[in-house]
Structures are given as C-alpha cells and as structure tokens.
Design brief:
Length: about 100
C-alpha cells in the first residue's frame, strides 16, 4: 500500500490542484519559536499522477531564498545542520522583500 492509498481525502477536494502539490521547507536558527529566527524558505513542486500512483519532482518549478540576518547568533552545530553559513546570512535577502 502506497501513500496515495492511505490518504483518502487528498483526492477530489474542492479548490485543490490534484496534479500539482507544493512542498515547503524552512530553516531556522533553532527550535524556540519565541527566540529563534527564520533563516531560509524553499519550495518545490510535485507532480501527482493519480492513475499510476506516482509522484515526480519538478526541478524547474522551485523557489529558495536565504533571509538576511541583522544579528547572527546561530551556534556552530546549527550552521552545520542547515548549511547556511555566516556570510550567506549576512548577504541574504531583506525579509520584508522576500
């Protein structure tokens, strides 16, 4: 049984594009929503083939932005985890414009 079999409500919902789904990913400076900051946002489109019960990633339909950080206080182990170094955080896009 695949994931399309156990997700009965996914198909046929009003207002839902059945052929294109978006997967969203965010990176943060830590796990505390009150103190840590959003560092990056990324998204990629998935094409859903209901007939053959298949998903495919559409690499040409993606988005990624690193947000500029005024203060960089991320711990070294956190930077190693998300891969967004100090320079990338300094040179990121203005969060208001992103």
């Amino acid at each position: 049984m695949g994931w399309l079999d156990w997700w009965p409500g996914a198909r046929g919902r009003s207002g839902v594009n059945e052929q294109r789904w978006i997967m969203l990913d965010v990176e943060t400076s830590g796990l505390d929503p009150y103190h840590d900051r959003l560092l990056a946002i990324a998204a990629i489109a998935l094409k859903v083939d209901w007939e053959h019960k298949r998903l495919s990633v559409d690499l040409g339909d993606s988005f990624e932005v690193v947000l500029r950080q005024e203060q960089i206080t991320a711990a070294k182990d956190n930077i190693l985890l998300h891969g967004i170094g100090v320079q990338s955080q300094r040179e990121g896009m203005d969060p208001v414009q992103a």
